[in-house]
Amino acid sequence: MHTDISVIDIIKKRRSTRNFDKKDIDKQRLQRLEEFIEEINRQAKIRARFTLTTNNREDGKAKRLGTYGTIAGAKTYIVGILDKDEKDSVEFGYLFEKIVLFVTGLDLGTCWLGGTFSRSNFRESLALDKNEFIPIVSPVGYIKDKARLVDTVIRAGAGSGKRKAWSDLFFDSDTSKPLTKEKAGPYKTPLEMVRLGPSASNRQPWRLVKDDNKFHFLLSRTKGYGIPSYDMQKNDIGIAKCHFELTAKELGLKGKWAKEDIGMVDGLEYICTWVGE
Question: Which CATH number applies to 162-276: 3.40.109.30, 3.40.30.10, 3.10.350.10, 3.40.50.1820?
Fold first, then answer.
Protein backbone atom coordinates (compact mmCIF):
# COMPACT_ATOMS: atom_id res chain seq x y z
CA MET A 1 0.00 0.00 0.00
CA HIS A 2 3.07 2.25 -0.25
CA THR A 3 3.18 3.20 3.44
CA ASP A 4 6.11 2.97 5.82
CA ILE A 5 3.91 1.36 8.46
CA SER A 6 3.12 -2.34 8.84
CA VAL A 7 -0.37 -3.17 7.58
CA ILE A 8 -0.81 -5.25 10.74
CA ASP A 9 -0.15 -2.16 12.86
CA ILE A 10 -2.51 -0.13 10.67
CA ILE A 11 -5.35 -2.64 11.09
CA LYS A 12 -4.81 -2.68 14.85
CA LYS A 13 -4.77 1.12 14.94
CA ARG A 14 -7.86 1.78 12.81
CA ARG A 15 -11.09 2.66 14.55
CA SER A 16 -14.22 4.53 13.49
CA THR A 17 -13.88 8.29 13.94
CA ARG A 18 -16.97 10.50 14.15
CA ASN A 19 -15.50 13.68 15.62
CA PHE A 20 -12.98 15.53 13.45
CA ASP A 21 -10.83 18.62 13.76
CA LYS A 22 -12.11 21.23 11.32
CA LYS A 23 -8.71 22.14 9.91
CA ASP A 24 -7.97 21.25 6.30
CA ILE A 25 -5.88 18.18 5.48
CA ASP A 26 -2.34 19.27 4.62
CA LYS A 27 -1.47 19.28 0.92
CA GLN A 28 1.12 16.50 1.10
CA ARG A 29 -1.23 14.02 2.75
CA LEU A 30 -4.07 15.03 0.44
CA GLN A 31 -1.91 14.54 -2.64
CA ARG A 32 -0.79 11.09 -1.48
CA LEU A 33 -4.40 10.11 -0.87
CA GLU A 34 -5.54 11.39 -4.26
CA GLU A 35 -2.74 9.44 -5.97
CA PHE A 36 -3.63 6.26 -4.08
CA ILE A 37 -7.31 6.58 -5.01
CA GLU A 38 -6.30 7.00 -8.66
CA GLU A 39 -4.26 3.80 -8.33
CA ILE A 40 -7.24 1.93 -6.85
CA ASN A 41 -9.44 3.16 -9.70
CA ARG A 42 -6.93 1.76 -12.20
CA GLN A 43 -6.89 -1.59 -10.35
CA ALA A 44 -10.68 -1.90 -10.19
CA LYS A 45 -12.03 -4.76 -12.28
CA ILE A 46 -15.65 -3.90 -11.54
CA ARG A 47 -17.80 -0.97 -12.64
CA ALA A 48 -16.85 1.20 -9.68
CA ARG A 49 -14.79 4.27 -8.93
CA PHE A 50 -13.74 6.25 -5.89
CA THR A 51 -13.22 9.97 -5.42
CA LEU A 52 -12.92 12.75 -2.86
CA THR A 53 -15.38 15.53 -2.30
CA THR A 54 -15.32 18.42 0.13
CA ASN A 55 -17.61 20.86 1.91
CA ASN A 56 -15.42 23.72 0.66
CA ARG A 57 -16.44 25.50 -2.53
CA GLU A 58 -14.42 27.80 -4.72
CA ASP A 59 -16.66 30.72 -3.74
CA GLY A 60 -15.75 30.16 -0.07
CA LYS A 61 -19.21 29.04 0.94
CA ALA A 62 -19.78 25.64 2.52
CA LYS A 63 -22.05 23.16 0.82
CA ARG A 64 -24.00 20.69 2.87
CA LEU A 65 -22.96 17.02 2.93
CA GLY A 66 -25.50 15.49 5.25
CA THR A 67 -24.65 12.74 7.75
CA TYR A 68 -27.70 13.13 10.03
CA GLY A 69 -25.60 14.35 12.97
CA THR A 70 -23.40 11.25 13.13
CA ILE A 71 -20.26 13.05 11.92
CA ALA A 72 -18.89 16.35 13.24
CA GLY A 73 -16.13 18.57 11.89
CA ALA A 74 -15.31 16.64 8.72
CA LYS A 75 -14.78 18.64 5.54
CA THR A 76 -13.55 15.92 3.20
CA TYR A 77 -15.17 12.61 2.26
CA ILE A 78 -14.12 9.51 0.34
CA VAL A 79 -17.03 8.55 -1.91
CA GLY A 80 -17.53 5.10 -3.39
CA ILE A 81 -19.50 5.12 -6.66
CA LEU A 82 -20.97 1.99 -8.19
CA ASP A 83 -22.83 1.21 -11.39
CA LYS A 84 -26.43 0.23 -10.63
CA ASP A 85 -25.99 -2.99 -12.62
CA GLU A 86 -22.79 -4.00 -10.80
CA LYS A 87 -23.48 -6.67 -8.16
CA ASP A 88 -19.96 -7.40 -6.86
CA SER A 89 -20.17 -5.68 -3.47
CA VAL A 90 -17.45 -8.03 -2.16
CA GLU A 91 -14.89 -6.47 -4.48
CA PHE A 92 -16.26 -2.99 -3.82
CA GLY A 93 -15.78 -3.45 -0.05
CA TYR A 94 -12.30 -4.87 -0.66
CA LEU A 95 -11.24 -1.80 -2.64
CA PHE A 96 -12.82 0.72 -0.28
CA GLU A 97 -11.10 -0.88 2.73
CA LYS A 98 -7.75 -0.58 0.96
CA ILE A 99 -8.35 3.17 0.83
CA VAL A 100 -9.45 3.26 4.49
CA LEU A 101 -6.27 1.48 5.59
CA PHE A 102 -4.12 3.80 3.49
CA VAL A 103 -5.80 6.78 5.16
CA THR A 104 -5.13 5.26 8.59
CA GLY A 105 -1.47 4.94 7.61
CA LEU A 106 -1.50 8.70 6.95
CA ASP A 107 -2.57 9.19 10.58
CA LEU A 108 -6.03 10.37 9.60
CA GLY A 109 -9.43 9.16 10.74
CA THR A 110 -12.27 7.51 8.80
CA CYS A 111 -15.72 6.03 9.41
CA TRP A 112 -17.62 3.67 7.09
CA LEU A 113 -21.08 5.10 6.36
CA GLY A 114 -23.61 3.00 4.49
CA GLY A 115 -26.91 4.34 5.74
CA THR A 116 -26.43 7.46 7.86
CA PHE A 117 -25.73 9.96 5.09
CA SER A 118 -27.80 11.88 2.56
CA ARG A 119 -27.19 10.37 -0.86
CA SER A 120 -28.87 13.32 -2.56
CA ASN A 121 -26.43 15.79 -0.93
CA PHE A 122 -23.42 13.79 -2.08
CA ARG A 123 -24.85 13.19 -5.52
CA GLU A 124 -25.30 16.93 -6.01
CA SER A 125 -21.63 17.51 -5.20
CA LEU A 126 -20.39 15.04 -7.84
CA ALA A 127 -20.83 14.52 -11.57
CA LEU A 128 -22.45 11.09 -11.60
CA ASP A 129 -23.70 9.23 -14.64
CA LYS A 130 -27.41 8.42 -14.59
CA ASN A 131 -26.64 4.75 -13.92
CA GLU A 132 -24.33 5.41 -10.94
CA PHE A 133 -25.18 5.47 -7.25
CA ILE A 134 -23.33 5.92 -3.96
CA PRO A 135 -23.45 2.94 -1.56
CA ILE A 136 -20.64 3.99 0.80
CA VAL A 137 -18.88 7.16 1.95
CA SER A 138 -16.34 7.90 4.66
CA PRO A 139 -15.27 11.18 6.23
CA VAL A 140 -11.52 11.68 6.31
CA GLY A 141 -9.57 14.13 8.42
CA TYR A 142 -7.65 14.79 11.62
CA ILE A 143 -9.09 13.05 14.65
CA LYS A 144 -10.39 15.30 17.41
CA ASP A 145 -9.27 14.02 20.79
CA LYS A 146 -12.46 14.64 22.71
CA ALA A 147 -15.34 12.35 21.77
CA ARG A 148 -18.88 13.69 21.69
CA LEU A 149 -21.63 12.08 23.73
CA VAL A 150 -23.28 10.90 20.50
CA ASP A 151 -20.04 9.08 19.54
CA THR A 152 -20.04 7.18 22.82
CA VAL A 153 -23.71 6.27 22.42
CA ILE A 154 -23.24 5.05 18.82
CA ARG A 155 -20.18 2.96 19.70
CA ALA A 156 -21.90 1.45 22.72
CA GLY A 157 -25.07 0.70 20.77
CA ALA A 158 -23.16 -1.04 17.98
CA GLY A 159 -20.73 -2.78 20.33
CA SER A 160 -17.92 -1.32 18.21
CA GLY A 161 -15.16 -2.26 20.61
CA LYS A 162 -16.18 -5.91 20.85
CA ARG A 163 -15.18 -8.77 18.57
CA LYS A 164 -16.44 -12.32 18.38
CA ALA A 165 -14.23 -15.11 19.73
CA TRP A 166 -12.06 -17.23 17.44
CA SER A 167 -14.29 -20.22 18.11
CA ASP A 168 -17.26 -18.33 16.63
CA LEU A 169 -15.49 -17.28 13.44
CA PHE A 170 -12.85 -19.79 12.35
CA PHE A 171 -13.25 -23.53 11.80
CA ASP A 172 -11.20 -26.63 11.01
CA SER A 173 -12.45 -28.77 8.10
CA ASP A 174 -16.13 -28.08 8.85
CA THR A 175 -18.22 -25.67 10.89
CA SER A 176 -18.63 -28.08 13.80
CA LYS A 177 -14.95 -27.90 14.81
CA PRO A 178 -13.42 -24.55 15.90
CA LEU A 179 -9.96 -23.80 14.55
CA THR A 180 -7.27 -23.36 17.19
CA LYS A 181 -4.56 -20.74 16.82
CA GLU A 182 -1.98 -23.53 16.89
CA LYS A 183 -3.67 -25.36 14.00
CA ALA A 184 -3.90 -22.08 12.05
CA GLY A 185 -0.10 -22.04 11.94
CA PRO A 186 1.37 -19.13 9.93
CA TYR A 187 -2.16 -17.92 9.12
CA LYS A 188 -2.88 -17.10 12.76
CA THR A 189 -2.13 -13.41 12.20
CA PRO A 190 -4.11 -12.98 8.93
CA LEU A 191 -7.10 -14.55 10.69
CA GLU A 192 -6.72 -12.27 13.68
CA MET A 193 -6.64 -9.25 11.35
CA VAL A 194 -9.92 -10.49 9.83
CA ARG A 195 -11.37 -10.73 13.34
CA LEU A 196 -10.43 -7.10 14.01
CA GLY A 197 -12.10 -5.81 10.84
CA PRO A 198 -14.97 -3.31 10.83
CA SER A 199 -18.42 -4.41 9.69
CA ALA A 200 -21.88 -2.90 9.34
CA SER A 201 -23.41 -2.61 12.82
CA ASN A 202 -20.44 -4.71 14.01
CA ARG A 203 -22.23 -7.91 12.94
CA GLN A 204 -18.95 -9.58 11.88
CA PRO A 205 -20.62 -11.84 9.30
CA TRP A 206 -17.45 -13.58 8.09
CA ARG A 207 -16.84 -17.26 8.80
CA LEU A 208 -13.68 -19.03 7.59
CA VAL A 209 -13.11 -22.77 7.26
CA LYS A 210 -9.56 -24.13 6.95
CA ASP A 211 -9.37 -27.04 4.50
CA ASP A 212 -5.74 -28.20 4.23
CA ASN A 213 -4.02 -25.30 2.39
CA LYS A 214 -7.29 -23.53 1.68
CA PHE A 215 -9.44 -21.04 3.60
CA HIS A 216 -13.08 -20.90 2.52
CA PHE A 217 -14.78 -17.54 3.18
CA LEU A 218 -18.43 -17.91 4.16
CA LEU A 219 -21.14 -15.37 4.94
CA SER A 220 -23.35 -15.68 8.01
CA ARG A 221 -26.18 -13.51 6.76
CA THR A 222 -28.56 -11.41 8.83
CA LYS A 223 -31.77 -11.73 6.88
CA GLY A 224 -32.99 -8.49 5.33
CA TYR A 225 -30.01 -6.45 6.50
CA GLY A 226 -28.52 -3.74 4.29
CA ILE A 227 -29.67 -0.95 2.00
CA PRO A 228 -31.73 -1.34 -1.19
CA SER A 229 -29.71 -2.41 -4.24
CA TYR A 230 -26.50 -2.96 -2.28
CA ASP A 231 -25.43 -5.99 -0.22
CA MET A 232 -23.78 -4.55 2.89
CA GLN A 233 -22.86 -7.94 4.30
CA LYS A 234 -21.03 -9.02 1.16
CA ASN A 235 -19.29 -5.65 1.43
CA ASP A 236 -18.11 -6.79 4.87
CA ILE A 237 -16.67 -9.98 3.36
CA GLY A 238 -14.69 -7.72 1.04
CA ILE A 239 -13.21 -6.03 4.11
CA ALA A 240 -12.27 -9.46 5.50
CA LYS A 241 -10.63 -10.41 2.19
CA CYS A 242 -8.63 -7.19 2.21
CA HIS A 243 -7.30 -7.73 5.73
CA PHE A 244 -6.48 -11.38 5.08
CA GLU A 245 -4.69 -10.79 1.77
CA LEU A 246 -2.67 -7.73 2.80
CA THR A 247 -1.55 -9.39 6.04
CA ALA A 248 -0.62 -12.63 4.28
CA LYS A 249 1.38 -10.64 1.70
CA GLU A 250 3.21 -8.73 4.44
CA LEU A 251 4.13 -12.02 6.12
CA GLY A 252 5.34 -13.58 2.85
CA LEU A 253 2.47 -16.10 2.68
CA LYS A 254 1.80 -16.73 -1.00
CA GLY A 255 -1.59 -17.66 -2.36
CA LYS A 256 -4.40 -16.71 -4.71
CA TRP A 257 -8.17 -16.27 -4.70
CA ALA A 258 -10.43 -18.86 -6.30
CA LYS A 259 -14.12 -19.69 -6.63
CA GLU A 260 -15.10 -23.30 -5.92
CA ASP A 261 -18.35 -25.13 -6.48
CA ILE A 262 -19.39 -25.20 -2.83
CA GLY A 263 -22.73 -23.41 -2.43
CA MET A 264 -24.27 -23.28 1.05
CA VAL A 265 -22.42 -24.78 4.03
CA ASP A 266 -24.55 -25.41 7.11
CA GLY A 267 -26.70 -22.39 6.33
CA LEU A 268 -23.68 -20.21 5.50
CA GLU A 269 -23.25 -18.67 2.03
CA TYR A 270 -20.01 -19.55 0.25
CA ILE A 271 -18.16 -16.50 -1.16
CA CYS A 272 -14.60 -17.40 -2.17
CA THR A 273 -11.47 -19.37 -1.26
CA TRP A 274 -7.86 -18.45 -0.51
CA VAL A 275 -5.56 -21.16 -1.87
CA GLY A 276 -2.16 -21.10 -0.16
CA GLU A 277 0.95 -22.11 -2.08
Answer: 3.40.109.30
